Amino acid sequence: MQFTTKPFIDAQTIQQRLEMLADQVFDSFPSVQAGVTLVSVTDSSRLLTEHFAAVVRRQSVDVVVLDAEDVPRAQWIVNNANQWLESCILIQDVSSTAEQIQRLFSFCRDNLDIPVRTLIVLSKRNEDVDVPSWEPDWIGFHIPNEYVVGWGMGIHKQLQTLASIQVLA
């Protein structure tokens, strides 16, 4: 199947925003100074998590990038918590699939003895829907409720390797 896309957020803008987010994290989450574990909540979030990890590494903080696609696999997180650093940030690429990060956050909060925070890179706000009771600690971009691809996000395993974030045209 062939898909048509149009540019939405270029790679340089994404990188700049991730750097700004890293500064916000360091300013508002002091335990990250002692070390942080980043958890990619979905497989599609992995590339954005790795880029955020690269920014954090420049800030002299050790980072481990894990992949925790579903809560049953989250038990691995708890079983290996002694290998973790001082805090945990759960990262999800887009808020339209935020149920996964919410479940994982609740699980980690209840089972880990370290601070756990959340970051959603692309937050979609649908004006017709009530604001959810749960909000992430940090948001990278507020975007319209459109289907986005690129940077690990795709449709039917296509368009994931685009060098920018694009929307379906």
Rg measurement, Å: 16 Å
Biggest sheet descriptor:
5 strands, parallel
- Contiguous uncertain segments of 5+ residues: none
Shape: globular
Task: Note the gap between the termini.
Answer: 14 Å
Strand residue percentage: 25-35%
Instruction: Give the tally of β-strands.
Output: 8
Helix content: 25-40%
Major β-sheet strand ordering:
3-2-4-5-6
Structural class: alpha/beta
H-E order: EHEHEHEHEEEE
Number of continuous helical runs: 4
What is the residue-averaged pLDDT? 83
Question: How would you describe this structure to a colleague?
Answer:
With 169 residues, the chain is of the alpha/beta class. It has four helices and eight strands, in the order βαβαβαβαββββ. It has helices at residues 11-28, 46-58, 71-79, 98-111, and strands at residues 5-9, 36-40, 63-67, 87-94, 116-124, 138-143, 148-149, 165-168. The protein has a five-stranded parallel sheet with strand order 3-2-4-5-6, sandwiched between helices. β4, α4 (98-111) and β5 form a beta-alpha-beta unit. The chain starts with a strand and ends with a strand.
